[in-house]
Amino acid sequence: MDTVFDATSERDRLARELLTRIADKWTLLVIEALEDGAPKRFTRLQEQVGEVSQKMLTKTLRQLERDGLVTRRVHPVVPPHVDYQLTPRGASLGEAACAIWNWVDEHAEAVAQARNATSDPRETAQDVDCD
After folding, report:
1. Which of 35, 53, 82, 95 is the most core-located residue (most Cβ within 10 A)?
2. What residues does each domain of the chain span?
3. Domain HTH hxlR-type, which positions (predicted)?
4. CB under 8 Å to 21, separation ≥6 — which residues?
């Protein structure tokens, strides 16, 4: 079987890093919160994403900015005002993520039913008599 990624290839290492970032707990939620194209302040993003700590949202936004997916704009006022907005590259990720959101929306109920129908493997393992 061919490998999907070549560990010696710089491009494949970057691809793996990007996939890991996109699949983390907060990235797609932040992308979705910014998807309407309007600049958003940090506190508004935190409200929209929900349950994300200030530290994790800051880290996620910095990584997205570093990758060119989000722009951070500082307004020269007192107190400082900062907002975030998707770049065209970030917006294209948002469009691609729509397929994932649609899949989740379509299959969430079936997944919940499957989880409820499946017994806990630890309970099953305790019931097995190996003698």
Report:
1. 35
2. 10-127
3. 9-112
4. 27, 63, 67
